[in-house]
Amino acid sequence: MPDPTPMPDHRPRPERQLSARVPYDGDGDGPAAGWHRIPPQTGHLVRLEAGQVLEIVDPLGEQVSDLYAVAADDVEECLSAGRTVDYNNTIYISTGHRLWSNRSRVMATVVEDTVGVHDLTLTPCSQETFDILYPEFEGAPHPSCFANLCAALEPAGVAPDRIGTTLNVFMDVWTDRLGELHIDPPPTVPGDRFAIRAELPLHVGVTACSAEKSNNGHCTPIDVRVRR
Ligand SMILES: [Zn+2]
What we know:
Elements: E1 36-38, E2 43-48, E3 53-58, E4 65-71, E5 74-78, H1 81-88, E6 98-100, E7 106-113, H2 127-133, H3 145-153, E8 167-169, E9 172-175, E10 181-184, E11 192-198, E12 202-207, E13 222-227
Antiparallel strand pairs: 1-13, 2-12, 3-11, 3-13, 4-5, 4-8, 4-12, 6-7, 7-11, 9-10
This protein binds zinc ion (ZN).
Zinc ion binds next to loops.
């Protein structure tokens, strides 16, 4: 039987064992009971004890969520996209892969993923991202994942310069044979989810990404829940 969703040649992806989609009761009016809604173009701080699971749902589809984590006992220990790529030997992480810190400790494990498309190569969108890459905005103030992560993680004692490359959940960035990066709309449908289990006590900043172009032209909310 042929693969029902073959990837085009120009966008190769490894095969992933995806989690089954389950119904999600949230919609445009609000999150499902027990979930927290991150409004469009904002961020949120989540505290996780070891063993707790952070679930991230895209309630309306085609929405990216940037995630950045620091160790709760020392915020100088933080998510390292580079080490995460190194130790997983892939830039496309999914269920079973681990998120590693700059000190090469396992911070979290991916435990659920209905999509299999997430990015570890791009930094969180920032005011400067819009200024440099989108001159059509003419330098106008724009909400950004970086500013939202700074605000979310500031109460945890995280300085802006400590915030590096994020795990960009649901973001479809792919690299062609010449090394050029391409960004496609998130392939998510309403209710798609991604979850990590904390292996250390963590502070996690999560956003509903602010960059219209990364979200197929419309910025929508992200819903999160901590499963104990
Ligand atoms: Zn963003």
